[in-house]
Amino acid sequence: MRYLTFALTKGRLASKTLEMLESLGITCDEMKDKDSRKLIFTNEELKLKFFLAKGPDVPTYVEYGAADIGVVGKDTIIEEGRKVHEVLDLGFGKCRMCVCGYEDAAELLEHRELIRVATKYPKIAKDYFYNKKHQTVEIIKMNGSIELAPIVGLSEVIVDIVETGSTLRENGLSVLEEVCPLSARMIVNPVSMRMENERIRKLITELRTLLREGGKDAD
Ligand code: PRP
């Protein structure tokens, strides 16, 4: 039996994924050693390997087959546009992609003004404004703390992730429009899906059952 390799998004998504896998009896004790500098972890018994990666790199590892399976946010899947199969909504990491700004920017949106949009997600923003809203805008790619953009006058609005809404609230900004809902998804390499169909299908079925039974606890 060959190893099945998982690429997990570093941080909360990885912890949640490992929690879920643990309830299926899939554990990786090696990964729990916080002082370890190891990059890849193995469960010899189940022939599984796990590694942690930055979100945008997860679909890349999976497209090239360096990982068979990945867990990553829907936002990253859309933005990266890699050739992977999205097989399961894991139900955690729920948030929304939104157009946000000061309340008075609502008028600029309504009148389809040529405004500036700062975002970490230029593809999602472009698709939303150009294809859905038919509004010409100038998109400015940023790398984080996007909420700063309208505050310092870089852009009129932003396209960003809203989870609890506290970053917006604490900075006097609001959600002006919703682009799409988001959550963590499981993705699979198309060749792995064929070659390791039985093992991967079994895992998806078990996760689906777990979600159905305990779904109400997932945040
Ligand atoms: C994300 C997002 C918002 C914030 C939303 O940023 O870009 O800034 O979380 O969460 P909230 O609605 O619960 O306040 P993240 O912390 O990932 O870092 P970033 O600003 O560097 O993208």
Description of the molecule:
With about 220 residues, the protein is α/β, with parallel strands linked by helices. The protein is built from nine helices and eleven strands. It has helices at about 10-25, 60-65, 75-80, 105-110, 120-130, 150, 165-170, 190-195, 195-215; strands spanning about 5-10, 40-45, 50-55, 70-75, 85-90, 95-100, 115-120, 140, 155-160, 175-180, 185-190. The strands form two sheets. The chain has a six-stranded mixed beta sheet with strand order 2-3-1-4-11-5. It has a five-stranded mixed beta sheet with strand order 8-7-9-6-10. It is elongated and about 60 Å long. The mean pLDDT is about 95. Bound molecules: 1-O-pyrophosphono-5-O-phosphono-alpha-D-ribofuranose.
Short description:
The chain is of the alpha/beta class and 219 residues long. Helices cover 35% and strands 28% of the residues.
Give the structural class.
Answer: alpha/beta
The whole-number mean of residue pLDDT values reads 95
Globally, the shape reads: elongated
DSSP strand content = 25-35%
Helix coverage percent of residues? 25-40%
User: What sequence of helices (H) and strands (E) makes up the elements?
Assistant: EHEEHEHEEHEHEHEHEEHH
Q: How far is it from the N-terminal to the C-terminal residue, by CA? A: 35 Å
Question: Which runs of at least 5 residues are low in confidence (pLDDT < 50)?
Answer: none
Strand line-up of the largest beta sheet: 2-3-1-4-11-5
As a whole number of angstroms, the C-alpha radius of gyration is 19 Å
Quaternary organisation of the protein chains: single chain
Separate helix tally: 9
Q: Strand count, sense and closure of the main sheet? A: 6 strands, mixed
Give a list of the ligands.
1-O-pyrophosphono-5-O-phosphono-alpha-D-ribofuranose
Number of strands: 11
